[in-house]
Each structure stands twice: as C-alpha cells, then as structure tokens.
Design goal:
Elements lengths: L7 H12 L3 H6 L1 H22 L10 H4 L20 E6 L8 E6 L4 E7 L4 H13 L1 H8 L2 H7 L21 H4 L4 E7 L9 H11 L1 H10 L11
Antiparallel strand pairs: 1-2, 2-3, 3-4
Helix pairs in contact: 1-3, 3-9, 5-6
Length: 229
Amino acid sequence: MSTPIIKPSTITFLSDLAQNNNRDWFAKNKSRYTSAHENMIAFVEELLHIMSKHDALATPSGKKSLYRIYNDVRFSANKAPYKPRFAFGIQRASAQRRGGYYVHLQPGNNFLACGFFSPNPADLKRIRQDIEQNPATWRQILGSKKIKQSFGTLTGNQVPTFPKGFPKEHEAIDLIKYKQFIVKHHFTDQEILQPNFLHTIDLLFQDVRPFFDYLSIVLTTDANGVSLI
C-alpha cells in the first residue's frame, strides 16, 4: 500500500476557496471539498499509525484530528464563512505525556507547530519555576542540533516585561517571559506535495521529543522532584 500524499487538487481547492469565500461557491464545489477532506483524513490516519510506533497518542482517528473548515463568525472579526486551510492536532496519551502536535496547510502559509500552546496557570508557573532553577538545561535542550536545525528558536506569546514573582534580572528572563512554549517549522507549497511529506512531519515530531519528555517530567513532579501523579 502506497503512502498517502497531499494531492495537488486539495491545495488547489484551498486556493480557490480563498478567492471565493462564500456559501454559494462552496455549495457548488462541495464535492471538491469532500474529496479534499477525505484526502486529509487518509493522510492523518497514516501519520497516526506511523507516530504510534514511537509515541502514545490520545487522538483516535484522522477524522477526529481535523479542525472544522467552517468559521464561527459569532466570535470572530473575520466574517468569511470558511477558513481556507486544513489543520489538524494530535494529542499525546495520559497525564504523563505532555505536549501537543499541530499541522496547518494553507497555500503560502504552511507550517507545523509543537509544544505547549495554552498551559493552565499551575502548569505555566511550574514551567517558569523550572526555567528559573535549571536555565542551563533549557538552553541545552532548545539549543540542541536537532531542534535548532528543525525549528530554530522558541516562539509563542510573552508577557511584555516579566512575570510577577520572578526576578527581572534572571539570566533566563527571556525564557521565563513566555506564556506559550512552541517551536515551528514552515513549508513551501511545493514541499507539502512531495511524496515524503508524511515522513518529513513524522521526523520533525520525533526531533521535538526531548523537549516534550523533559517537560513531561517537570509537569508531573513538584519543585523537589516528587511525583504529582
């Protein structure tokens, strides 16, 4: 059985949707959406299968992983009825495994992101405490060859000055300021159509695992290393 690929017709559909983001056009092209959606489901199903060989995942299926293409205009300044992208998220299984995977496919804006997107207040405080106590470990992990080559530098929202309760002169205040801890890798439109794209994603997700594994330990122990689970 051949490895699923992202079909050119899937990307063409997204490009056309971006130019014709209205309900009449979408209704006339519903069959194109259905084909593109099925392409994405098959792609993610195989990715889940491959990833399950090296990680325990909570996401049950490719279909369940996909975000809706329909835009909820009630809470958005963008009143276009559709989001001209396909995106999916993959969650790790059990409280012992932290970190999440995300892929966003949109002509001209294709990227993969992994990390800690919305830590709750307790987790965010624990992460910042660990950075304060172990800055060299953080520098070593984030500065590792694989992470630097695959993702570059840490990204995510930050506080404008410094978090309350942490010294603004700390040597790792640049890391403590983060509210999200995300690494990203961008793709060209040509790269996402390559036959090896699925395996490229899988390898990138493997590259980030040392970061996930370290923070999984941090977030399941207290500051003294005592298990919280």
